[in-house]
Amino acid sequence: MNARHLCARPHLILFWLCLFSPLLSAQQETSLRIAVIDLAKAFEAHPETAKATAQLTKDRNASRDIFKEKSEALKKVLQEHQELIRANKKTEAGEKLKAANDLEKEIATLRTTQQRDLEERFLREKHRILDAIRAAVAKHNADKRYAVVLDKSAESAFGIPAVIDASGTADITDEIIALLKTTKPDEAQ
């Protein structure tokens, strides 16, 4: 095939350029730099994680205590209701039953509301800490210039690790943890 044939067929030139251009550009560029981070380890090591966990545990226990108090109050009202029935005091028994029903509704609402509030606060804290980790990775990556940073602790939808082998990649987990420990909470955002 000579030059005249190639000029007569521009689609062949385009085909060969498309076929070989990735190989040529790959040789010209430096190798793709990839780093991995153990996000679960970084999350656990974040200074705010222990504080947030302790506060959420304290709040959950306080919610349980309130629930126990209300449940004990309901139990007491139901016992009083039974005593009034045995004493043949139907009017007072009816009032106690109404009070018991009101307490049951209050307990159900309280439990649902408290559970939802705790879950929302947990998610907010989790996202706040993950945002701080992402900011630390971005700050670290501004100097290191990795093309991609993968979470080696992540699992796929099938329950297998998302990163199966990371040999030859830089593990920046410890560097990010050190950066997180030196970053003030208001700087992370």
Low-confidence stretches: 1-18
Helix % is over 70%
The CATH H-level superfamily is Skp domain
Average pLDDT, all residues: 83
The SSE string, one letter per element, is: HHEHHHEEHH
The second-level CATH architecture is 2-Layer Sandwich
User: What separation lies between the terminal Cα atoms?
Assistant: 62 Å
Identify the strand order in the major beta sheet.
2-1-3
Helix-strand makeup class? mainly alpha
- Specify the number of helices: 7
Topology:
Elements: H1 3-8, H2 10-28, E1 34-37, H3 39-45, H4 47-86, H5 90-144, E2 148-151, E3 170-171, H6 173-182, H7 185-188
Helix pairs in contact: 3-6, 4-5, 5-6
Quick structural summary:
The chain is mainly α.
Q: Can you characterise this structure?
A:
With 189 residues, the chain is mainly α. The chain has one domain: Protein Binding, DinI Protein, Chain A, CATH 3.30.910. Helix content is 75%, strand content 5%. The protein has seven helices and three strands. α3 (39-45) runs parallel beside α6, α4 (47-86) runs antiparallel to α5 (90-144) and α5 (90-144) packs across α6 (173-182).
Primary descriptors:
189 residues; mainly alpha; 3-stranded parallel sheet; 75% helix; disordered N terminus
